[in-house]
Specification:
The protein has 268 residues and is an alpha/beta fold. 44% of the residues lie in helices and 15% in strands. It is built from 11 helices and 8 strands. It is globular and about 45 Å long. It binds the ligand O=c1ccn([C@@H]2O[C@H](COP(=O)(O)O)[C@@H](O)[C@H]2O)c(=O)[nH]1. The ligand O=c1ccn([C@@H]2O[C@H](COP(=O)(O)O)[C@@H](O)[C@H]2O)c(=O)[nH]1 binds at residues 21, 23, 56, 88, 146-147, 185, 187, 209-210, 212-214, 235-239. GO terms for molecular function: orotidine-5'-phosphate decarboxylase activity.
Amino acid sequence: MTFAHAVTDRTRRLQTRLCVGLDPRLDAYRDAAHLRGHTLDVLEATAPYAACIKPQLAFYEALGLEGMKLLEEVCAAARTLGLPVLLDGKRGDIGSTAQAYAQGWLSGQHGGSALTVNPFLGFETLTPFVDTARANGGAVFVLVKTSNPGQADLQGSGISERVADEVRRLNAAEPQSEYPSVGAVVGATHPGDLAAFRALMPRALLLLPGLGAQGARASDLSGAFDPGGTGALASASRGVQYAQGLDVQASAAAARSFRDELNAALKQ
Ligand SMILES: O=c1ccn([C@@H]2O[C@H](COP(=O)(O)O)[C@@H](O)[C@H]2O)c(=O)[nH]1
């Protein structure tokens, strides 16, 4: 089953459109062992409410070799729980280097996972990522309009729409898939733009980061979804992992509540 198929299947079976971000911050813990235990506990406690998980690679890279080991543990635990993994690495480089990133994050033990990719170097640099994702049942999520306030500095003036057109063009090569292997990142912090990006990329899975800590609300996101309630994943990291300090039950309650709010928004 491909990444897109797996998350869509989870959305339909478990009625969840929530992507749980796992971004462990060392300064929140006594030591690395404490961080590891809490991160794995949050993963297990929130799994019933998640369509997928999204580890942000930066937080694991910041921990050095121990972080890389933890990332592999998190991915293995997610697989055991049946949770698709979306790696947030925002990778992008000249083609030959992109090929190495793709090999590292979209094949081997990460085959079937998804990776966020940065199109800034040009559309030809997306090819190694897309080809590797397709060959391994994975997915890429291309940055179209990011959630941060400064995104308009470079993504304004029609640039996001141009990237969205490329996402649609790439997905035309997979006419048989409900949701093909090229998805798009559109910040949940731009609720007024979601329906337009949905229309520009009608078959792309959308990742909507910014729920919770960045101020986006589940009730504002319905424009991103298809009529059946599929096609988008709303993502929260701090708002789940650190919902109430390090209280794991509060993390589970926050994930359940985001799931329920997303579902309620779609019923209106
Ligand atoms: O446009 C984007 C793309 C990715 N992110 C990442 O998502 C999480 C958001 O964390 P919160 O704690 O829920 O704010 C983080 O890993 C970002 O790097 C994003 O925020 N916006």
